[in-house]
Design a protein that fits this description.
45% helix; globular; mainly alpha; two-stranded antiparallel ribbon; 333 residues
């Protein structure tokens, strides 16, 4: 009986250790007190050189969290034995990996083997939001890094999805229609390749014509920037890029997170079909209009949705690992 009781206690203790850990504010307050400050300083340095960095960090974080949770699996390089997530077609245009590498190097100098790449990416995205004019938000930390990264796992809502199809994808990671509509607001500071919307300009749904829901002035502008014969969908290095928020392109501060993106889609001036589709459903069009009327409401909800995104499928406690190099699993596989 005593042996049985000891076994039950051990089982209970093991269960407690693996289920009681969760994300918390200032997780590194004792183990690496300067961790968040180091992340902020490195992001600021990169942003001063390239103001588009925040958009890259936010997108990188989103693509990480959407596949099996926020575990930094998107950062892992392929090996001779494994093709990693970042090689999947939707991830080929991701960037800001160098920013994460620089942060990790600085953090490792301060506290070796303590701060996860998953937390570094989440914190860097948060700092990118702030540097773009968004609200600062308290971000719980304590994520651990995943040990699996597979190209075949990388599936995302595409730029031509309907709102309902995109919502169905978002619901698989416990995000709702408010989160979908709000997080797409990050397109106010983003760039995209012409290949993501070329069909809207020349052959919408196989019609041989342009999308009838695109503003004629915008159509002329985009056709000039994205000549059909120049766009190379399978070669992103040669595919031209444009601002997803054309109002930003004409602004003196094109990398500012604001509601001009929503004003644009309500005026049929969205670049991506999914963004434009927000104007065609009752709830999303009303939410977009409310953001235009009250920009502070948008910024507040964007922070809330980013916190929610950053909590998707996280590894904590003894799950996962703390990578020494964000680009490779510790065991080298």
């Amino acid at each position: 009986m005593a042996a049985l009781s000891s076994s039950l206690l051990l089982l209970f203790a093991a269960h407690f250790l693996t289920t009681s850990f969760s994300l918390e504010l200032n997780f590194y307050r004792d183990s690496c007190p300067r961790a968040e400050l180091i992340v902020k300083e490195v992001v600021q340095k990169h942003c001063q050189k390239d103001p588009s960095v925040p958009a890259g960090l936010i997108r990188l974080h989103f693509h990480d969290c959407f596949i099996k949770g926020c575990d930094a699996s998107v950062l892992v390089d392929s090996t001779d034995y494994n093709i990693a997530e970042k090689e999947a077609p939707p991830n080929l245009t991701l960037r800001a990996f160098d920013v994460i590498d620089d942060i990790k190097a600085e953090v490792e100098k301060e506290c070796r083997g303590v701060v996860s790449c998953a937390d570094i990416l989440a914190l860097a995205a948060r700092d990118g939001v702030v540097l773009s004019g968004g609200e600062a938000y308290p971000l719980p930390t304590g994520r651990r890094d995943g040990t699996v990264s597979l190209m075949e796992d990388a599936h995302f809502p595409g730029p031509s999805f309907s709102v309902q199809a995109a919502l169905s994808a978002f619901q698989t990671i416990n995000l709702d229609l408010v989160d979908l509509t709000t997080l797409l607001g990050a397109h106010s500071i983003g760039l995209c390749h012409c290949g993501f919307f070329i069909d809207r300009l020349y052959n919408f749904r196989g019609s041989g014509l342009a999308d009838p829901h695109i503003d004629p002035g915008l159509l002329d502008t985009l056709r000039h920037k994205c000549p059909f014969e120049v766009v190379e969908i399978k070669n992103v290095s040669k595919d031209p890029k444009v601002f997803m928020n054309q109002a930003a392109a004409a602004s003196s501060s094109p990398f500012t997170l604001n509601t001009s993106f929503y004003r644009g889609l309500l005026d049929y001036r969205a670049v991506l079909r999914l963004d434009q589709n927000l104007a065609f459903t009752d709830f999303t069009s009303r939410l977009a209009a409310s953001y235009v009327d009250d920009p502070k409401l948008f910024l507040a909800q964007f922070s809330k949705s980013m916190i929610k995104l950053g909590s998707v499928g996280v590894l904590t406690g003894r799950d996962g690992e703390i990578r020494s190099n964000c680009r490779s699993i510790n065991d080298g596989t």
